[in-house]
Write a structure and sequence with these properties.
Layout (H helix, E strand, L loop, with lengths): L4 H23 L3 E7 L11 H10 L7 E5 L5 E6 L1 H7 L5 E6 L10 H4 L21 E6 L40 E6 L2 H7 L17 H10 L3 E6 L2 E6 L7 E6 L1 E2 L2 E2 L1 H14 L3 E4 L12 H11 L3 E5 L18 E6 L3 E2 L1 E6 L4 E5 L13 E5 L19 H4 L3 E5 L5 H10 L4 E5 L17 E4 L1 H13 L4 E6 L3 E2 L6 E2 L19 E4 L3 E4 L18 E4 L2 H18 L5 H10 L12 E2 L4 E2 L2 H4 L6 H4 L4 E2 L4 H10 L4 H8 L22 E5 L5 E10 L4 E11 L4 E5 L2 E4 L5 E9 L8 E9 L4 E10 L1
Helix pairs in contact: 6-12, 7-8
């Protein structure tokens, strides 16, 4: 055959045609798309929505077929389309959104993967952490729901021999509730009851049992066991696990319906340290006060002396400046950032305009006639603050069967939805105001609802107040991952500067704290509202309360990997390896401003566990160093005794003390009273063996600050070696309130040991 010219030509033509066919097919590659339809816009000639969907699809593709029809969680269908067909379909009447399908794998509830803790036990990142099972994370919160699968003790060995804790009992809490994972549970109510009277046991348990959900969520985030097929009502489906799966948990209930009282908190801290906890996780705060007046700071000092790291939330009072709680330098203070997961919802107005928001609503969708009359709460209320959808403020006759726009603020977001529902409303759009900007927090609302940012909210309100017959609808997009940019600093995360000691930069770092899935109580539904009849094993909530236990769990992993590290050393490793830029080199953004965050927003940056296990160098701090710090603050003998329990300790009158000499892993430089030069001294300890480290500094901002580091090169001969250096900051006079930011980095070519710099003029 090879000798026949006609056959050879036929073969060439055949191959050419095959190649052209491949090119054409490549150009028409199909993918699955989810098509969201406005069900109420079905033309009258159709009696069945499926028929209408089919005709809509055929209008852009003769060959595509419907894969699924959706009529409960969304209205619409899925189909295999080319990109061109998908774009054409989105222009058809009744089509609201055409979204490409995303591949989902069964994995963690996202934060462990986002933090690169990819193995279920974390040992690929922390190979030395085999002793993590001996680390106990004590969580001071609202108690624990022991029946949660997050406390499954399968595979755990005996309780550590040095554990001295107990499992206290109550009317609904037996000692058998504890096991080899949840090894301790206590409650502290005497201070609360002295202030508020006896606990109302019809509303909450006078026992370690968690009737609120907050404590179960935080403790399972820090050290929960692996739970497969976890989700909240189908959202964020995957394998739930805490940061330190192998660590033990001890719950200390200190918060009740009426609050958390310092006498109870101190008693719990006292017990937790005595019981043998290695980490204390405290997602609570109470404003700011001098350290000798701050119960948490006082308790944390003693814990630090005994080798216990205390991790606290920074607070949810952002984005305003100087809103932080838990400022003591011996406390690790954690702000909140987002992860790369979202729960989109889409708002379409009667004028065709479309807006993106978020929601965790999972019930029945809007009625068949899903394009509904749309009203502004402020116009259908009997109160001057009716726009906020406060209880009892909406007029049912003006709300019945309509979608209501409520402004965010004052009362809980989920309560606003309940108020709309109780007034007969069919749905809610929750609009951010200037206080929250573009930050979106998803909620498991009781009625169809979506939250939108301030810009979208303002635009929607403009339509709502100008159109004579406003209409709207909401569709829900489920779970999406791979969201960029991420992380961004949450708007609610409290910010610096430090109001107690401006020379100490706070927060220390940020961690995931927005839309976090973790264990939940069986006492209340996901909204926490009494009217919510739903019960779930996991819930998605947000706050620095969620970011704090992430760091608590990571600290437990580091303590397991490096049992000889002090609390300050563990914090140093987490801070100096944190990142403040994306892979592109651009700075991590602040959602409140849309601009790069500053060290007052994110401290050293976002926690990066794989790097923290091998930081190269550490900034260590001893109890005596903190005493020198208190002397630099001109603390009296009484004040020091209050904080450090040293009744006869006095500062040496012959010694010069300076706040800037505290060996902190960050730099907060304050120019004031005509000062033009400020010096900071630091000492680094090698934990990465021999090496030569060279320094690099970078600053930018309002001033022209010169930064000189002496020496600019540090040589370490072996692990344990220490080297000191001095940083001199020199500046001309600047107006009060001016700021400048930067970074000081030591590197040996393998390790990068970074410290943030914040400079202010006062």
């Amino acid at each position: 055959m090879g000798s026949d010219p006609q056959q050879r030509m036929a073969l060439v033509l055949s191959l050419l045609c095959l190649s052209l066919t491949c090119i054409v097919r490549a150009a028409e590659q199909r993918s699955t798309y989810i098509v969201h339809m406005a069900k109420s816009e079905m033309p009258s000639e159709f009696s069945d929505h499926g028929d209408w969907y089919g005709v809509s699809l055929q209008s852009v593709s003769e060959s595509a077929e419907i894969i699924y029809l959706y009529d409960t969680v969304l209205h619409g269908f899925s189909a295999r389309l080319t990109q061109a067909e998908a774009e054409a379909l989105e222009t058809q009447p009744g089509v609201m959104f055409v979204n490409p399908e995303i591949r989902y794998d069964l994995h963690t509830t996202r934060t462990p993967e986002f933090l690169h803790l990819d193995e279920t036990n974390g040992n690929n990142v922390f190979p030395q952490a085999n002793s993590a099972s001996d680390v106990v994370v004590g969580v001071l919160d609202t108690g624990v729901w022991p029946e949660s699968k997050s406390y499954d003790d399968t595979g755990f060995g005996p309780v550590p021999a040095n554990w001295k804790g107990t499992c206290e009992t109550g009317p609904d809490f037996n000692s058998s509730a504890c096991n080899r994972k949840l090894i301790g549970a206590r409650f502290f109510s005497k201070g609360y009851e002295a202030n508020k009277g006896p606990i109302d046991q019809t509303k909450e348990s006078r026992s370690p049992r968690d009737n609120d959900g907050h404590g179960t969520h935080t403790s399972s985030t820090a050290a929960g066991s692996t739970v497969s097929r976890a989700s909240l009502l189908g959202f964020a489906t995957g394998t739930a696990r805490g940061m330190a799966v192998g660590a033990r948990v001890a719950a200390y209930k200190v918060c009740w319906v009426g609050g958390c009282f310092s006498s109870d908190i101190l008693a719990a801290m006292d017990a937790a340290v005595a019981d043998g906890c290695g980490i204390l996780s405290m997602s609570l705060g109470g404003g700011t006060a001098d350290y000798f007046r701050d119960s948490v700071a006082i308790g944390a000092f003693s814990a630090m002396e005994k080798g216990v790291l205390v991790s606290c939330s920074a607070g949810n009072s952002g984005p305003g400046p100087s809103t932080l709680s838990n400022l003591a330098p011996w406390i690790t203070t954690i702000g909140a950032g987002t992860i790369d997961r979202d729960f989109p919802a889409y708002v379409t107005l009667g004028n065709g305009q479309k807006y993106s928001g978020v929601s965790l609503y999972s019930g029945k969708l809007l009625a068949a006639n899903s394009t509904l009359p749309f009203v502004y709460a402020g116009k259908v209320s009997n109160a001057t603050v009716g726009n906020l959808c406060m209880p009892g403020t909406l007029v049912p006759e003006k709300v019945q069967g309509k979608i209501v726009l409520c402004d965010r603020g004052t009362n809980p977001r989920v309560q606003k939805g309940l108020v709309v529902q109780d007034a007969g409303g069919a749905g809610m759009i929750l609009a951010n105001t200037a206080a929250n900007g573009e930050e979106l927090v998803a909620d498991a609302h009781l009625l169809p609802a979506a939250a939108v940012g301030q810009k979208s909210g303002d635009s929607i309100k403009s339509y709502l107040l100008s159109d004579p017959n406003p209409m709207a609808t909401i569709v829900f997009g489920g779970t999406q991952v791979g969201i960029t940019p991420s992380p961004v600093v949450a708007a609610f995360s409290s910010r610096g500067p430090n109001t107690i000691t401006p020379q100490i930069l706070k927060p220390d770092l940020i961690a995931p704290g927005v839309n976090i899935l973790a264990g939940w109580t069986g006492s209340v539904g996901p909204t926490g509202l009494a009217a919510d009849p739903r019960r779930v094993e996991f819930n998605i909530i947000s706050g620095t309360s969620m970011s704090c236990p992430h760091v608590s769990g990571l600290a437990a992993l580091l303590k397991g990997a490096h049992p000889d590290w002090s609390p300050a050393a563990i914090r140093s490793a987490l801070m100096t390896t944190a990142y403040s830029t994306y892979a592109s080199g651009d700075g991590v953004l602040d959602v409140a401003t849309g601009k790069p965050a500053t060290p007052f927003d994110l401290g050293a940056g976002h926690v990066d566990p794989p790097r923290a296990v091998d930081p190269g160098l550490l900034y260590d701090i001893t109890a005596d160093d903190y005493l020198d710090f208190l002397c630099a603050l001109n603390y009296t003998q009484f004040m020091i005794a209050t904080v450090a329990k040293r009744a006869n300790y006095t500062c040496d009158a012959k010694k010069s003390y300076d706040v800037s000499s505290l060996n902190y892993p960050s730099f907060s430089v304050v120019f004031g009273n005509g000062t033009t030069t400020v010096k900071h001294t630091r000492t680094l300890t090698s934990v990465g063996g021999a090496g030569t480290y060279k320094v690099n500094t970078l600053t930018s901002g309002a001033g022209d600050v010169k930064v000189a580091v002496n020496p600019s090169e540090l040589n370490f001969k072996k692990s344990g070696d220490q080297q000191s250096y001095t940083v001199t900051f020199t500046s001309s006079t600047m107006p009060s309130g001016s700021t400048e930011f930067g970074r000081l980095v030591w590197s040996d070519g393998k390790h990068v040991v970074a410290s943030p710099i914040a400079i202010t003029w006062s």
